[in-house]
Design a protein that fits this description.
The protein is an all-beta fold and about 290 residues long. About 0% of the residues lie in helices and about 40% in strands. It is built from one helix and 19 strands. The two termini are about 30 Å apart. The relative contact order is 0.18.
Length: about 290
Amino acid sequence: MRFRHLSSLFIGAAALAACSSDEVSGVATQLAPSASVRYVNAVADTSALDFRFVDGEIEGSPQFAGMSFRQFTPYQRLRAGSRRMRVFTNPAAYTNSITVAQQQHIDTTFTFEVGKRYTVISYGFSRTGVTPRHRLVITEDVLPTTLAATAVGVRTIHAAAGVGNVDVWVQPSETPAGVSGAPTAANVAPLAATAYLNLTARPVGTLLYRWDVALTGTSTPVTVSPNSGLPGQVGTASVNPLAGFQVGRSIVTAIVFGPSVTGSRAPTGGEFNSVGMRFLPDRHLDTTEQ
């Protein structure tokens, strides 16, 4: 599996301009040219975060509040163009303190292009003196345009700050725990994304796929054999399919996260004590979405 560094993808956005009808007047409303954006919190040493667009726009400006470490959102419509973004501390864990709500982590501007999709990742550490520092990593998501009816396209993004280069094995989860043979993706650097790999859609009722991640050059996984946990849903004549590993022509992104920092307000215990994974449905090719 090939991979490339995400910094080369730092431009873009999705969804073409469209018209909708005003339910009150019946007059067609012209929507602003738009992109699509989703947000991922990969900061392992702080409490939940709020992501906001702060350039005065209301229409086409999704706000993502209370996003804990390893949480993510679906794609949302975004007005394209140069957009100003900020990331704040969510105040819920601090009795909704106004002072805490004003604590700002990030203030930056980025140009999102019409008709493109983007993933915005809060990456790094928020604590003073710890590197890499929390920043936004913005990738243009260039999805496969063709897949066989029995194939699932999936890539892996390394968003585990503080974890070195890794090797990734993707195996049917019936395979015994542990790794053998050549990795599916080798020597993946932090903030790198693999190319999309074609996997065979798993039969309904089976155990999907398992991701094992080891530091490059070793064969001892640092993950706790995470199951992909995203079966998806086969479509019907009236309902679009949902992307997942049991539904052919699905597209999925797997993200590698680091362990949470002991003593911080990030979630701890269980899987959070180790390198972990989350699986984001990108889309299904057999759909009417724009």
